[in-house]
Sequence to fold (307 residues):
Amino acid sequence: MFRMTRVSVIGLGAMGASYAAKLATAPDTDVRVIAEGERADRLARAGVIVNDVHHDFTVVKPHEPVAPADLVVVAVKYPCFHEALAQLRHHVGEGTIILSLLNGITSEAEIAAAYPQAHPLLSITFGVDAVRRGNAVTYSSLGKMAFGEPTNSAPYTEAVRWVAALFDRAGLAYDIPADMVHQLWWKYLVNTGVNQVTALLEAQYAVVQAPDSPARALMLAAQREVVAVAQAKGIDLTEADIDSWLTVLAALGPAQYTSMAQDTLAHRPTETDIFSGLIRTMGAELGVPVPVNTCLHQILKAKELTW
Fold:
């Protein structure tokens, strides 16, 4: 018997709204947005505008029972993650695939612990320049998502093939890396440097794109500490991974802001705890000095207190 593909999205910020809008274009796909309170009312009333196209998604409140989703996309920021995790209860069934768009390296394990009946895949996004202002989201590039099991080889697992087919129908670019753990740590290296430095300075990408920029030097110093911690944990990050990030960075719009810089500009809680905060913890456990990330964490936490 035919039925629509069910996709549930929680977190309709810049990233979540952009992916929800693209997934909604896939034939025979029903996109539902999980929200509560005033946000749910606002979304139901005004919808969301993505690149000048208005979208009215079905809004489901967390307490409302629904048929479990085939795919759940978690697109909240980490300060809201644990609340959002509880709100997925009615949307996760046996074999539900879950993609976490969160930064960091811990959310997939937490999802797996909360919903052992589900099938979370590792995933990262890169090359995205989406920005939200009010209920309007704009982007010039959605970049790519890399996703998969921890290790992947053709013809891939059923869950990976299913997501790839959905993304093909939605026109979303993706990669399926052989070593997804390495990719997750590569994105973590990127964000620990560029997100925190631009957030601290409340600055655009331009501040770290100039080769002689002091901000760029600070970003690289923070990233080299991530490499040191990763190597102590047996993760194969090297200076070549920083070089590949610099190639990506050069192609990003200099006037755009990282998601964390957008947070500090709006006086929202940042994700510094899952970047330099976690690096500090791992560094202490492994005996790896991380003075740059220690300083970044302390300053960003102090900055939050001034709000």
